[in-house]
Amino acid sequence: MLEPAAERTDADILLTHGYFIAEDLHEQQVMKPYPPLGLLYLSAYLKREGFQPIVYDATFETRAALLATIARRPAPVIGIYTNLMTRPAVLDIVAAARRADMRVVLGGPEAANHVEAYLEQGAEVIVIGEGEATLAELLPALADGGDRSLGAVAGIAYRDLAGRLIQTPPRPAMRSIDLLPWPDRAAIDLGAYLDCWRRHHGRSTVNLITARGCPYTCRWCSHGVFGFNHARRSPEDVAAEVAHLAATYAPDMLWYADDVFTISPRWLATYRAALERRGLRLPFECITRADRVTAGVARDLAAMGCFRVWLGSESGSQRILDAMDRRVTLGQVREATRMLKAEGIDVGMFFMWGYPGETLADIRATVDHVVACDPDVVLSTVAYPIAGTPFQEEVVDRIVPLRPWAQGSDRDQALRGRHSRRYYGLASRWLKAAHQLGRLRRQRGALRPASLRLSGEIAWVRLGMALTSGEREA
Length: 474
Hints:
This protein is 43% helix and 16% strand. With 474 residues, it is α/β, with parallel strands linked by helices. It has 2 domains: 4-167, Cobalamin-binding domain (Rossmann fold, 3-Layer(aba) Sandwich); 172-382, Aldolase class I (TIM Barrel), CATH 3.20.20. The strands form 4 sheets. It has a 7-stranded mixed beta sheet, sandwiched between helices. Strands 8-11-12-13-14-15 form a 6-stranded parallel beta sheet. α11 (265-277) packs parallel to α12 and α15 runs parallel beside α17. The chain is globular and about 70 Å long.
């Protein structure tokens, strides 16, 4: 929340986002929110460069409260982070900012993937790529007010005075992100996040990153901010930040929010040593790829305190994985799972239904794959084409919007000819039942309980019925 005392007329920019936990029914069941690191990096960088940003973290606030703050015009410029989930709220914020005569700047993957649409909806400038250096140049250019000044800022899109779409040359990605200051966590009420986690899960957590970007080429994944670049902080800098977090906030655990935390086994071993020199061993979880897990990586993770690794398995069909350009084999997924579990680390897996070309045989293969791997947690979703991805380009002529653009997101799209959502719901039910039954077989050496087996069999039969009935998504 932005306190009244912080609503300064001398502020250069108000940084905010469009996510409100009170509007997210799913998250209200899960209650695992994390602070907006991107905005906190921007705030820290701008302060170092001599600007005066203020941050309004809307997570625990209401949309009405944020709009009321904007109406009081706490700064001449507003910078709004956008992602897949927040489009309708962001558009409300844009409209409120325009009414308050604020200059509107958008950043994040969603705006970068829908540049023209957001400019038509009232945004003045879209930042494409990393925002720190771009925003530090953009603020004086906005104050100057001319097209020529904006045109000199790399990494933005805007409409000139004649209404023409202008996209300036891309800004080169940062190679040494150690030069960035740590996130400005003092700018928000971090205690609200810690309290939320303790209240709902019995322990608190803090998020941080050790790297930016992902060099891999999965066809459904958005690279709207960092492209295919990958830059990593030094192990010593990350260890120093962890020491600061431990001393300042005393979290019970950490969440490393990197796309591929173990991308470099050598970096990981050096980081482990840096933590050990400082006597730091905080429990944590992270995401990585199966092909970036070795026996040594698993040992290092366990020694550092890792209690769970999330793997994007996506499918149990090698044919579908190859179509996704995952560049991972089923054998690598199974071996990575085995090595992690051997070190006492839980494994979570993500799966994606409905990728083009998937058949009932591929779904069965995915169920069999999960039973064979025996992960501790399984999550699944239906594939949706995000703007700007190769997946979206592949199916663009089959996309059927389910809502007007301004009222939904890239998730609110059906693919003509694909099976119904009910079909994929049955696939998820079958997967869950088979997974639970497989775990019980290992634990008890028996086929009980019969209810689980029956649940899986019913889901399988209904899945076949849905297939033969010809139900389609659109």
